[in-house]
């Protein structure tokens, strides 16, 4: 049984701490999935915003002027992206984290540390990460250290940038166009989780437009 003890509330400035108590309980996989785009715990909110069209350094924030922020509820509704928050220092003993892995069937995990010193073929890897693509499976990343950006396309094909840092867990659904970039700190360390054996090969745009996983994603979003 999964209990949502504290639900962090999205606010317009995304920079302060908020909390509201809840005794809501999820008894099904569906309830867990619907709840998982909320952060669990006493936390600083993740930030998400619509991007500008600048070709400047991808590691910059690329906010519109004025910024247009996206709440976690909007992120879930527009893109199907789910978000949770866990303490990266104590996740191994966290009951909710263990329950998430069990409910979602995550049976494989590893670590990925992205920096010039730790990642072989660093420049080419970053170029590949930032090439727009989809995956045939959902992409789960739990940030243990550092910071980065997941860019995802909304239903109108506009880019939304999601800033992730330590303690953030993001679930990018199969079939959504997305990409990843470091920020100007040039470092992130993440735990990657998978259902079964991982499939590493991205399916780049435009070749993915007619892929069955892409079509299934679009149908799923249209039905929401």
Automatic annotation (TrEMBL):
The UniProt record lists the EC number as 1.13.11.54, 1.13.11.53
Q: What is this protein called?
A: Acireductone dioxygenase
Which residues bind Ni(2+) per the record? 133, 135, 139, 178
InterPro entries attached here? ARD (IPR004313), ARD_euk (IPR027496), RmlC-like_jellyroll (IPR014710), RmlC_Cupin_sf (IPR011051)
Q: Its Gene Ontology molecular function terms?
A: acireductone dioxygenase (Ni2+-requiring) activity; acireductone dioxygenase [iron(II)-requiring] activity; iron ion binding; nickel cation binding
Q: What class of enzyme is it?
A: oxidoreductase
Q: Report which gene this protein is encoded by.
A: LOC106065922
The record describes its membrane topology as: Peripheral membrane protein
Catalytic reactions of this protein: 1,2-dihydroxy-5-(methylsulfanyl)pent-1-en-3-one + O2 = 4-methylsulfanyl-2-oxobutanoate + formate + 2 H(+); 1,2-dihydroxy-5-(methylsulfanyl)pent-1-en-3-one + O2 = 3-(methylsulfanyl)propanoate + CO + formate + 2 H(+)
- Cofactor(s), names only, from the UniProt record: Fe(2+); Ni(2+)
Listed under GO cellular component are: cytoplasm; nucleus; plasma membrane
